[in-house]
Amino acid sequence: MKIEMQTAAFLWAIALGGMLGLVYDVFRIIRIAVNTHKTVVFVQDILFFVFCTMATFVFLMGMSDGKTRFFLLTGEFFGAVIYFFTVGRIIIKSSGAVIALIKSFFSVAFKYIFYPLWRLFYRIVLLFFAPFAFLRKILKKNAKKLKFSLKTRGVILYNHFTGFAHRNSKNQR
After folding, report:
1. Domain extent at residue 46
2. Which residues contact 151 (CB under 8 A, 6 or more apart)?
3. How many CB atoms lie within 10 A of CB 18?
4. Per the structure, how many domains does the chain have?
5. Which of 1, 21, 4 lies closest to 69, judged by CA?
6. What torsion, rounded to 10 degrees, do the Cα atoms 43, 48, 49, 51 define?
7. 75-110: b (≥16 Cβ within 10 Å) or e
8. Cβ atoms within 10 Å of 173's Cβ, excluding its own
9. Within a domain: 136
10. Mean pLDDT of 77-100
11. Within this chain, do residues 73 and 122 fall inside the same structural domain, yes or no?
């Protein structure tokens, strides 16, 4: 491999490291926007590392015929570090404002579009089911009657005259 090809491969490795940093920032922005559980963060990290491994493998296959070259891995590392300390900081700082803007947009959209539509749908449903309101009252009364008939009584008739005192009173008469 000539020095010109090695230099070009090193620069491409730096670019790949920057692109992998950008992919990781996508995951970071998702974590900022949505409150994620630690298991979701773990799964995201695993997916990111699998993606990085595949990207590095394809890159090494294309640039150095599959041979692992230390300077290419170093180039990826430098590309990621350069990205995180330059463009990555700007993206993360601005992402908070963008996320707040998107959340406020959806809040306004819900307040002025979706909520009135929901109320309209609710009123239409109420108008449709209003003729059946009398059935609800009847069913409610019947349900109360069923509960009343299932109550246990204090004294049950067939148990009332059983026992020792009843037998003795027959013998004494």
Report:
1. 3-85
2. none
3. 21
4. 2
5. 1
6. 120
7. bbeebbeebbeeebeebeeebeeeeeeeeeeeeeee
8. 4
9. yes
10. 91
11. no
Cβ atoms within 10 A of the Cβ of 63, count?
21
30-82 pLDDT, tens per residue?
888 888 888 989 999 999 999 999 999 999 998 888 788 899 999 999 999 99
Q: Which amino acid is at 105?
A: F
Q: How far apart are CA 76 and CA 73, in angstroms?
A: 5
Structure token pair of residue 135: 């059935």
Asked whether the beta carbons of 48 and 23 are under 8 A apart, the reply is yes
Residue pair 3/68 in contact by the 8 Å Cβ criterion = no
In angstroms and rounded to an integer, the radius of gyration of the C-alpha atoms of the chain is: 37
Torsion of CA 80, 86, 91, 94, to 10 degrees: 160
* 155 inside domain: no
- Contacts of residue 67, defined as CB under 8 A and 6 or more positions apart, other chains included, come to 60
Q: Is residue 81 situated within a structural domain?
A: yes
pLDDT grade, residue 10 (50/70/90)? very high
Residue count (the chain): 173
